[in-house]
Task: structure prediction
Amino acid sequence: MYEEYVKELKLEEKTEEESNVELIKSIIKTKIDLDSANKNYEFAEGDLIDYYLYQIKANQSKLNYLLQKAKKNGIIIDMIRQIEIRRNQILEDTNAV
Result:
């Protein structure tokens, strides 16, 4: 009776450089999230202690995975590039609001 119509989208493959930049952005964002969870844990009370411990462990696992992936791809994350990408990420976030 009812038929579903699925719109097919053509997927564009990313270049190696685009994939690497995306991976670096993910690493930086995960590091920021980890730092934030650590800071929040310092002031947590009651049930929030467990919540922030979970967040810390999850972000550490994710960061380890992303760093292993970067190492496997031969990506070297230097601090100058990291600072530049972090600044761009902050600018994108402020423009989105």
User: Anything to note?
Assistant: Residues 27-91 form one domain. The radius of gyration is 18 Å. The chain has a mean pLDDT of 82. The chain is about 70% helix and 0% strand.
